[in-house]
Design goal:
Layout lengths: L1 H26 L22 E5 L12 E8 L2 E6 L3 E6 L11 H8 L2 E6 L3 E10 L9 E3 L2 E4 L2 H8 L7 E10 L3 H7 L3 E5 L2 H4 L7 H7 L6
Parallel strand pairs: 5-9
Antiparallel strand pairs: 1-2, 1-10, 2-3, 3-9, 4-5, 6-8, 6-9, 7-8
């Protein structure tokens, strides 16, 4: 019991530290809320299943030199996951329910660190595991050549080298209301490119924007 209490204190302290870090990342630049009055653009269906790449005309500092994997886009809005804003690393032990494992297993999970990425300013406490499609769990949803899972099992499988071949652990997502993203694209704040899995799952965030931008094109 004493070990469990010590573990929980350590877990809470580290989680609070990380939550403060990610909150500062959001709030030190701009508010996470969408603008109340934004230019609505005309909907088009070519955004989904592409990289969304910020141009030099991007005025929102949260998204400067940002690359986003666009997972959904329709007339009601759009959302995706930013993949090139690395926050640091975190022990897998902090990402799973501590009651699922024995004290020895928890101690082992504390020694296994994974890179953590900022997915966007919305729901920054929500975890998305973006991964290659050969891995499936009960929560897995497939989006073209990319899958998303949101359960503890995939994290435990990653810790045991039984998880997907490629994966990113992402906090939060990027979302737009109806016509909002289209309006930003009409002002040339964003361009598109085909999703490149090597770029998407590269742990080195510093090269992703340049590589994605090289393959970009203007929407049709």
């Amino acid at each position: 019991m004493c070990y469990y209490n010590d573990f929980m204190k350590k877990r809470i302290l580290l989680l609070l530290t990380f939550i403060i870090t990610i909150s500062l990342f959001n709030n030190s630049i701009t508010s996470a809320e969408s603008p109340k009055n934004y230019l609505k653009g005309e909907f088009y269906s070519s955004v989904k299943d592409h990289f969304l790449i910020a141009t030099e005309k991007m005025t929102d500092s949260r998204f400067e030199k940002t690359v986003i994997v666009m997972l959904e886009s329709d007339q009601n809005g759009a959302w995706g996951l930013t993949i090139n804003k690395r926050l640091g690393t975190m022990p897998i032990a902090l990402l799973v329910d501590p009651s699922l494992n024995s004290s020895e297993e928890r101690e082992k999970l504390f020694k296994i660190n994974v890179p953590i990425f900022w997915g966007g300013p919305v729901d920054v406490k929500t975890i998305f595991i973006m991964h290659s499609t050969e891995y499936q769990s009960e929560t897995t949803k497939n989006y073209g050549n990319i899958s998303i899972s949101q359960d503890y099992n995939i994290l435990l499988d990653i810790a045991e080298n039984k998880g997907p071949e490629k994966s990113l652990v992402i906090f939060g997502y990027s979302g737009w209301g109806s016509g909002q993203l289209e309006g930003e694209m009409e002002r040339d704040h964003w361009i598109l490119s085909d999703i490149d899995l090597d770029i998407a799952f590269d742990k080195d965030s510093n090269t992703k924007w340049n590589e994605a931008f090289k393959n970009s094109f203007i929407k049709i």
